[in-house]
Write a structure and sequence with these properties.
3-stranded antiparallel β-sheet; single chain; 5-stranded parallel β-sheet; Arc Repressor Mutant, subunit A; Rossmann fold; alpha/beta
Length: 232
Amino acid sequence: MATVLVVEDEPAIAESLAYSLKREGYGVQIAATLADAESKVELAELIILDLMLPDGSGFELLAGLRRLERPPAVIILSSRDAEADRVAGLETGADDYVTKPFSPREVVARVRAVLRRTSRAAATTGIAQLPLTADAATRRAAVNGVALELTRVEFDLLASMLEAPGRVFTRAQLIERIWGDNFAITDRTVDSHVKALRRKVSEAGGDAQLIETVRGVGYRVSDEPTAGLDEP
């Protein structure tokens, strides 16, 4: 089973999560500080991350993970439940966002769903024939050979659509593939990530219209983009 790193400075919360995860067969590491978490990152397949830590912000750890070749998945824990906070966490690279108070059983279910999704993405191979490529083995993406610096969610969106170039993926299908079942993810969150992905494709010299909007349905990757790009 995967190893989960619980980064939480409240002992009662950390121990409750560790107990629930161990009951499901997961290996568990606990870190109460940012410094301790940084020393244990490479041991984990998934991190449960509190944003408010005694020696810094969880966002600092998230930023550092993006420099790793194969970063672990991340589920944020936070007492801040405003939509802006959730979107900021997801756009920084987190896979899911859980607000306090929470049920340990719910968190374990989300851990299972995120790990299931990342395992599925790891089985996806890169597609070299298209201008856009995403190699799941190295988690590297490119447009016309130029590397793209993507968040985890942006990469997984691109990799999912590259599984079937030309096929239209609905927002609901993308939510299920990227976040799993029963997650409080809205269509607007998907649109926001697609918009960011397009921007990065354009900044790297590619055509943002390679990721097409099919109005009223969803998105697809095309090697022959149409002239008009409908923004999400």
